[in-house]
């Protein structure tokens, strides 16, 4: 059968997307929706790589071939045992080479119409970079701003439940974006996986409708926001959530309550602020942290650290800051967040009616 090369754009035409790489490669990043059926596991891949360096390609292929055959047999007995005769899988590895090629060969021998992704994961990675670079300058962004504790992420989620387009960068980064933003027991993804999530959203964006995003700095924890997206955010219209300090403090005490579970870890993190805030202030904060006294701690962090930084940075980073729209709130409960989402959507409706 004469088959043309399968491209990234052809992915929806297949029943199953199979990643034939090792589990460690798959965990680092993979094409969304793929299942991992490695032809070599992590240890086997290490062994074959060592043989290739020390004894050459023939010995690596001889030993690796036996491992591949055993793993393919296992997949045929287990993962693929219930697939019908008309099953159409697409297989990829790092570059569309021997690992995915060997799996495709065996699947075709069974009788399935298996095909190989041209260029493998490496080509998909190029697609991700190209999509972000090409689409970012065209995105109809509405950038949600607001001082720390303004519930911006929750407002984004409320907008999404109302059918609005939303890009949740902090959700993709698994980090809240501030000094204390690390999520307990939740490591951040790889940079590649973060960018894959962004590209997946951009692939489905309607450029005729607003896309809401939280105003972020260029880094979220250890993750870097792609430069073209940062540039577009900084040039886009801003909507500021202007919540009262009391509402923000109440929200922070709910949203960051888990920080009280490990006072010593919180105190250690606060120690990073000594140069900015002075030894005496930070020692007071650390004492509150160790005593799980989050209310006075968060109140002073807002007043002395977060709010002054926010006031300085917004006008510097957002070109349209002087023309921002504001929505005010003294309630960041679930009901208050719902009202904020409605108010933000009303801004868009009002602007659409202007001549």
Characterization of this structure:
The chain has about 350 residues and is an alpha/beta fold. It is about 50% helix and about 10% strand. It has 15 helices and 11 strands. It has helices spanning about 25-30, 40-55, 55-75, 100-110, 120-135, 150-160, 170-175, 190-205, 225-235, 245-255, 265-270, 275, 280-290, 295-315, 335-355; strands at about 15-20, 35, 90, 115, 140-145, 165, 210-215, 220, 225, 240-245, 325-330. The strands form 3 sheets. The chain has a 5-stranded parallel β-sheet, with helices on both faces. It is globular and about 65 Å long. The model has no long low-confidence stretch (mean pLDDT about 95).
Helix and strand layout, with pairings?
Layout: E1 16-19, H1 23-28, E2 35-36, H2 42-55, H3 57-77, E3 89-92, H4 98-110, E4 115-116, H5 120-135, E5 141-145, H6 152-161, E6 165-167, H7 169-173, H8 191-203, E7 211-214, E8 219-220, E9 223-224, H9 227-235, E10 238-243, H10 245-255, H11 263-270, H12 274-277, H13 279-290, H14 294-317, E11 325-329, H15 334-353
Parallel strand pairs: 1-2, 1-3, 3-4, 5-7, 5-10, 6-7, 10-11
Antiparallel strand pairs: 8-9
Helix pairs in contact: 2-3, 5-8, 6-15, 10-14, 11-13
Which terms summarize this structure?
11% strand; 5-stranded parallel β-sheet; 4-stranded parallel β-sheet; alpha/beta; 355 residues
pLDDT < 50 stretches: none
Query: How many distinct helices?
Result: 15
Largest sheet: 5 strands, parallel
If strands are numbered along the chain, what order do they take across the biggest sheet? 6-7-5-10-11
Helix content: 40-55%
Average of pLDDT:
94
Supply Rg: 25 Å
| Percent of sequence in beta strands | 5-15%
* Gap between N and C termini: 59 Å
Question: How many β-strand stretches?
Answer: 11
Which shape, going by the Cα principal axes? Answer: globular
């Amino acid at each position: 059968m004469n088959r043309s090369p399968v491209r990234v754009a052809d992915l929806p035409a297949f029943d199953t997307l199979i990643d034939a790489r090792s589990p460690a490669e798959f965990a680092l990043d993979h094409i969304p929706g793929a299942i991992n059926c490695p032809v070599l596991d992590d240890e086997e891949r290490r062994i074959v790589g060592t043989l290739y360096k020390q004894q050459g390609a023939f010995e690596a292929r001889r030993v690796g071939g036996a491992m591949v055959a055993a793993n393919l047999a296992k997949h045929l007995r287990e993962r693929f045992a219930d697939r019908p005769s008309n099953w159409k899988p697409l297989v990829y590895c790092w570059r569309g080479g021997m690992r995915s090629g060997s799996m495709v060969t065996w699947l075709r021998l069974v009788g399935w119409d298996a095909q190989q992704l041209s260029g493998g994961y490496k080509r998909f990675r190029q697609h991700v970079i190209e999509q972000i670079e090409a689409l970012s300058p065209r995105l109809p962004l509405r950038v949600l701003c607001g001082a720390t504790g303004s519930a911006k992420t929750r407002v984004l989620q409320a907008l999404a439940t109302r059918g609005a387009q939303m890009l949740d960068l902090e959700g993709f980064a698994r980090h809240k974006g501030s000094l204390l933003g690390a999520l307990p027991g939740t490591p951040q993804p790889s940079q590649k996986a973060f960018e894959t999530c962004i590209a997946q959203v951009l692939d489905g964006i309607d450029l005729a409708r607003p896309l809401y995003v939280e105003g972020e700095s260029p880094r979220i924890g250890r993750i870097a926001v792609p430069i073209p997206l940062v540039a577009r955010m900084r040039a886009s219209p801003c909507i500021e959530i202007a919540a009262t300090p009391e509402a923000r403090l109440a929200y922070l005490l709910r949203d960051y309550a888990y920080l009280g579970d490990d006072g010593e870890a919180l105190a250690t993190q606060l120690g990073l602020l000594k140069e900015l805030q002075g030894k005496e202030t930070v020692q007071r904060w650390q004492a509150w942290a160790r005593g799980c006294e989050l209310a006075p701690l968060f109140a002073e962090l807002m007043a002395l650290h977060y709010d002054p930084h926010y006031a300085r940075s917004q006008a510097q980073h957002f070109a349209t800051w002087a023309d921002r729209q504001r929505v005010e709130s003294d309630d960041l409960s679930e009901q208050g967040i719902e009202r904020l989402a409605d108010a933000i959507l009303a801004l868009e409706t009002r602007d659409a009616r202007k001549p």
